[in-house]
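Z., the sequence and structure:
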Amino acid sequence: MADPRGFLKVKRESAPYRPVCERTKDCCHVTEMRPEEKSQEQASRCMDCGTPFCHWGCPIGNYIPEWNDYMFRGQWEKALALLDATNNMPEVTGRLCPAPCEYACVLGINDDAVTIRENELAVIEYGFKNGLIKPRLPKKRTGKKVAVIGSGPAGLSCAAQLNSAGHSVTVFEKDDKIGGILRYGIPDFKLEKWIIDRRVDIWKKEGIDFKTSIEAGKDLPVSGILKGFDAVCLACGSRVPRDLKIEGRPLKGIEFAMDYLIQANRRAAGEKTPAHDIIDAKGKKVVVIGGGDTGADCVGTAHRQGASCVVQIELLSRPLESRSDDQPWPDYPLVLKTSSSHDEGGKRHWAVMTKRFTGKNGAVEKLSCVKVEFAKEKDGTCPAMKEVPGSEFEIEADLVILAVGFIHPEHDVLLKELGAQLDGRGNVKTDETFKTSVEKVFAAGDMRRGQSLVVWAVSEGRKTARAIDSYLMVDSSLPAM
């Protein structure tokens, strides 16, 4: 597999980042593409490990050792064919995925793991560069029509798979462009939007019908959807944000992360925003509450808007920099992750709880905070959070961004009129075949499983497509993953 001794000869080397002073002045991608020769060299580190746990770590079951081998040998077309067999959007996951496969890499037991995600990106971009990614029309049509509601990664993957099976697929999106969270929730410095457009153009040529600015249930009645299609896939995401309901919350200058990021993405695309609605960090003291990926995206966006200073606070304790004994290989560990946004400046604080917001003239000026600690209980239950006496402090802020997660999909007209059953967390409930309580209606992605990773959304979309194909045709030729 690749070079059996490659991992002994070559050390892990990731793609270089553009200089901070350069990248914070634009919205272009923060990293540079590696030369193909360098990617082949990195692919040589994929060793003949016998049992490739990277498969186990990947939600879509990528053929990682196999396409690394082809890549190392310069057989790019064969590598591309294997990558295409399991992933509808490798150019997206190759940029955004936190790479659970790398944490499961056998080489990672006592060395740095293979650069699997960047190798994946190298393969797909080689394909686009050399004209190997072309529309592939279905050999025949089944006469069945499927509606996919929502055009995020789950909906798009589901649509692509169903179209390849010969069904006529229509994707409905309430926003004015296709992409869902990929377009409006992910900053351009992580995913430039021409990457989405490039793939959507191919799917259009393959026969998928995309309809934008149509909100299912509102602009398109539920009765019309159920009558006009043989099956329906709900893939609307999990868009209801978790709020921080504390004293001072109504003050101006406290915004939800997704409202901030969506507007920033629209402005970066040249869309006009009314002056009184603009959320801008320029010259402001910005505090981001929430230490996850969304919070980091807000940090990077604030840097590009010219914030005077940026502070990110997280309720949980600072993670360890390496695996702990209770998170052994090949599990995906809770370890400290530093993104490109953090490298650009600002401060991070852990184990901090916000008690109240204060301000003047209706606008926020300060956060009153306290340090917390998590004490392990003797009975083995989750650690109890306790405030540290005498640790109270304040942080000045002109703009506060709440990035504390999402609770469930929007319980809007669509779900109400469908009458789809919800689970205890407010997500759409399905059986093991992704089927909802409503006949011929299925659900995929964050709408069904809750807020998760892009790669999990792709996996959900593909599995739901197979379930729908089986429902329509009794048996399915689509892959199980």
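The domain at 6-129 is CATH 1.10.1060.10 (Fumarate Reductase Iron-sulfur Protein; Chain B, domain 2). The mean pLDDT is 96.

Let me know what you think.
H.
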